[in-house]
Amino acid sequence: MKKHISLSLKCPYCLKSLMDESYPLHGSPSIKLNIESQTDRGTIHLCSIFECFDHEADIKLEKGKVVDFTCPHCNKELLVKEECKICGAPMVSLLLDTGGRVNICSRNGCPNHYIAFEDLEIELTRFYEQYEN
Ligand SMILES: [Zn+2]
Ligand SMILES: [Zn+2]
Asked: How close is the Cα of 117 to the center of ligand 1, in Å?
């Protein structure tokens, strides 16, 4: 059976944890971010389990629209210059506790997300050490 990996993420700017223990999704703390659509602003909780796309937002998000993500601590915008290879929307980049980044597409409904390691060998080893057993 595939093991569920729950990612622990932090803001790349203020380095504060984005994990919300008071709002678990699928039994793991969720990732809390502020969001802004064309018409509204609110909060989103993303499931922290790798390969799970579930999320709950307190505002209505239109499918196919790009959402602006900001850090709930320092309010910095989390979109980066990189474009999604699937749909061309800006990517959102978050820091992994173990080193490396998780990039997710800012377009609601686009499935693109991946983990990027800058120092592949060191960070990948640390990543697996943390999640083994
Ligand atoms: Zn921040
Ligand atoms: Zn996309």
From this structure: 20
